[in-house]
Amino acid sequence: MLQTQNIDNNKFILAIHSTNDLFGFGYKDLNNNATKDNFSIKKLDKDLSKNLISTLAEFLNKKQFESIARISISVGPANFNASRQIVVCARAISQQLNCSLDKYSSFKIMAKRIAIKNEILDNNQYFWIIKRLKNRGYIAGKYRINILNNVNSDLYIEEVISPKLYKQFLKKEAYFEAEYDIEDELKQLLELSTKKP
């Protein structure tokens, strides 16, 4: 993971994420840990492929693309076309700038919020996040709690099994439906790319 003390003070981390019906950008300046994160969230439309870069450029405003130190993205499960376009866009920018690219599942970046909301806070406790698909079964991923330094703020969630398709889902352990919250998930993308687990 990225250690902010080793980065040029003018640099920032860029996060790109999509849900079923929204997409968004976030960035965090690395010159001051107290600096607030900045976000832009928009409704997905059919022209995303045409305006993804221009929307990103508008969001970054006066910030320079060359100042991106790292890119952190979600790779789904969510809207398939949007996820694919985000991956292609982020890879192109990463290669052009020679900066790192972090990829996380959408379930991984919602897992911390779901664990806290449902009080799944015991060390080494497992739970699943699932998403029901019409006539196709379930997408499910398995997660494990890892509390660092015995405080909830240091809660780290390990992705034990990445989300994948199951025809049936046997409910032997705790499980929760996927719940998207794009601003919180953009924050998690930025946090995952700046903090060591």
Please provide a written account of the structure.
It is a single chain. The protein is α/β, with parallel strands linked by helices and 197 residues long. The chain has 2 domains: 4-106 and 180-194, ATPase, nucleotide binding domain (Nucleotidyltransferase, domain 5); 107-177, no CATH class. 28% of the residues lie in helices and 34% in strands. The protein has helices spanning 48-60, 80-97, 106-117, 182-194; strands at residues 12-18, 22-29, 38-43, 68-74, 100-104, 126-133, 137-147, 155-166, 175-177. The strands form 2 sheets. The chain has a 5-stranded mixed sheet with strand order 3-2-1-4-5, with helices on both faces. Helix 1 packs across helix 2 (80-97) and helix 3 packs across helix 4. The N and C termini lie close together (8 Å).
